[in-house]
């Protein structure tokens, strides 16, 4: 009975946030002279209206889930990794280049691309962790700044050395990868691909890892009470670098999955314009860094975004309504996070890096 | 090299310093009362958009700047309420406000101007440029310092005013005390919450000015996400300057100069992607050399006892 009560209580806040988000969205719709019910109906149709739209929403959710999981791991350990965007972009770039230039059968190309993405993005992220543990540089700020450097660097790589010069298009992009290296689609003619399965498996795996392994316990302990963790013999610097590596690696995987499953090449700006990384961070915040919850929150955000696109096709309301609803969701949820942070503060957590 | 480091580079640097400096000063005041304001980026964005909107609605540049300040004040009230009254984690609130600012500005851009991405009106008047009487006749200095937008001079004056306010006035000392040791300040009968509110509101007003300089200073336009990381760079300037106005000004000068240099280097057939990295790389390198121990203590104090 207690457990049921706990679950209900855990659900109430997100539900309230969603209601608040929709209310503010309704005000915005009225402001631009739209019909609230009609608009939300179109939004629902755009996200879940038929099988194609549903799978489209799942496809969009794929990178958001993956990024969210990566960020959730770092957040759980108390490290504010804001660098998901740069990590994802570097992962996507490495995946595309590896798939293009590694010889061999498709499966080898695909696996090599994934591994390359994981290693490059992981190292890039671990670099920020190292800067913090070695030089005491605020992780939140360095990861934010490294985003700009990573995306600009990736843009340079596809605008100059690895630019696709075969086609007539002047876009900054790599060549298309070999068809054999692409992720298979889950359903014929639908956009959702193997990456979605990977994301769901990873969410479950991470849930188990956090709950049932020593490392998972160390991570939760570091996030919950760093002083206690270090007293218990957890090396903060080492754990920071490792968890940042894994966190970045998963964001890199998100990039690889987009390249191998959806775009089949690295196109400059396509990942950043779609806001996958920031949506992933939002999903993590919404779910308070719970892996399974992050997956659901990512689905919700993805549905808001694809729904917004459907809405824009059929009504006069601009799709930017979605971003307002998302922002209100986050704002409301940050009040909820407060509760857990107060608990943490009472436990005596006074660690500099996560502040 | 002569071509690179010419007069117009330094003039451009001063122009680009202003938004970073104004926002960084706001961040410094917030840091002084124990609030680490990650939402600077969003606040500048709101300021930049509302400056354009104010200009569009009223046609008066004074009203536009005023409108921008008012809008950013309202926006910063949200930050103050959530972090001071609701005691939400300031970093999460800051991040949430950045999302909200992006959402609000892109939505309003569509709803009000019916454009996607950017709004540009060539007939719109920008901030007036001031020619300083005697200064403008001095050969090199005159070309750099004179003829800047009015907010550039405002930024310089604000640095001096804040320095005096924080270190020479009673009210300023109370502000420092509220951040330094909130419990002691409270036991002396100081209103810590009120002081924090005042600090956040000052920060909001400064970010409004920063945004106005960004959207009305050189070209009169608004583009989605036009702050492009300046809020975060300002945050680093706050940290490097140890939240001391003169120090913050020094750090902002460095970053503004790097931004100007990065634009200038594009003329030397270096790819723009590489040159655009310059401000960010320099910012990160600067973080290695200037340890922000003072700032970190602030953060600990705030999480330890003020709330």
From TrEMBL, chain A:
The chain crosses the membrane at residues 12-31, 51-75, 110-131, 138-159, 190-210, 239-256, 276-301, 321-342. One of its GO terms (molecular function) is transmembrane transporter activity. It holds the Pfam family BPD_transp_2. It is found in: Cell membrane. InterPro entries: ABC_transp_permease. The keyword Isomerase does not apply. This is ABC transporter permease. It comes from Paenibacillus montaniterrae. Keywords: Cell membrane, Membrane, Transmembrane, Transmembrane helix. One of its GO terms (cellular component) is plasma membrane. It is a multi-pass membrane protein.
Automatic annotation (TrEMBL), chain B:
Pfam families: BPD_transp_2. It is a multi-pass membrane protein. The chain crosses the membrane at residues 7-29, 35-57, 64-84, 90-113, 150-167, 197-220, 232-258, 270-290. Its main location: membrane. It is found in: Cell membrane. GO terms for molecular function: transmembrane transporter activity. This is ABC transporter permease. It comes from Paenibacillus montaniterrae.
